Amino acid sequence: MKSLFFSILFLFLQLISVGQNNFNSSVQSGGIGDCNATLSGVWSIDGNIAGATNIDRISLGLSLENKFGLKELNSKTALIAIPTNGGVFGLSVHQYGFNLYNENKMGISFSKKLSQTFNSGIKINYYNTHIDKLENIGFVSFEIGMQKELNRQLTMGAHLNNPFNFTENNTLDNTISVGLLYKVNQKVNLYTEGENADYNEMSVKCGLEYEIIDQMFLRTGYNSKNNKNTFGFAYSYKKYRVDIATYHHETLGFSSQFSLSTSF
After folding, report:
1. Which of 39, 173, 222, 249 sits most deeply, having the most CB atoms within 10 A of its CB?
2. Where are the domains of the chain?
3. Confidence of residue 68 (pLDDT cuts 50, 70, 90)
């Protein structure tokens, strides 16, 4: 019975794994179809690092994701952003899986405002995969991000993850994401993004965020990759912010995400 369970579990891992990257981005992004390129704030350290440039206080974030109701597919994330006179430094730590199979990721980032309307960032990541009694391998990759405010309502973002496989054992996809944020009014934001994996496979993302009352948001989105529908909620109270998201995979069912962030 146990061997059957693990056979099914590793089948799930194969279905949802994409180039050894089971670390989804922020819960905010998770509610709007995984649009990342134009988001800002502490969770940009886990998305497009250029969005972290406006952080002016030390900020912390913790998140948990459960995929398809299986505790063996849980992901945990912790991150911190530290602003300085020269820019914003970030540190993030991720863990996915369980004792027999897990993936780990640690990243160090630096984000800097190059002009009043142009932000940039770079991040170096170390990935490690552990399969009990079989293998324990790791490699290094990097990512870069940019954001440009085109006008008061429109912002463009671009993000390159693992553009070059320059280390051994690197199995990540090379991805390029380009997105737009359109601020319809003070209450409504529209997001759209295109992502290209390995310069071949293209996915389209879109999202809507609506502030129903002060500091309370509803979100929804769609990601053409795996035909994924997403929904989200967020609420901020003083220095604290809670984000919740859920998404549906057409084959495997529902997953959920939760995060808590604060600054001081």
Report:
1. 39
2. 19-263
3. confident
DSSP 3-state of 16 = helix
User: Can you tell me the distance from the alpha carbon of 191 to that of 120, in angstroms, rounded to the nearest whole number?
Assistant: 20
| 233/258 Cα distance (integer angstroms) | 10
Q: Which tokens hold the place of 240?
A: 């604290």
* H helices present in the chain, as ranges: 2-16, 27-31
> Could you tell me which residues come within 8 angstroms of residue 17 by beta carbon, excluding any fewer than 6 positions away?
none
Q: What is the pLDDT of residues 33-44, one digit of tens each?
A: 999 999 999 999
Residues 125-161: pLDDT tens digits?
A: 999 998 887 878 899 999 999 999 999 999 999 999 9
CA distance 22 to 236: 28
- What average pLDDT does the structure give for the chain? 89
Contacts of residue 14, Cβ cutoff 8 Å, sequence gap at least 6: none
User: Identity (one letter) of the amino acid at 1?
Assistant: M
Residues 6 or more apart in contact with residue 102 via CB below 8 angstroms: 95, 96, 129, 130
pLDDT digits (tens, 9 = 90+) for 176-207: 999 999 999 999 999 999 999 877 778 999 99
CATH of domain 19-263: 2.40.160.60
Residues 6+ apart with CB under 8 A from 55: 41, 42, 81, 83, 88, 111, 263
Residue 114, CA distances (Å) to 85, 87, 119, 176 in order: 13, 10, 6, 21
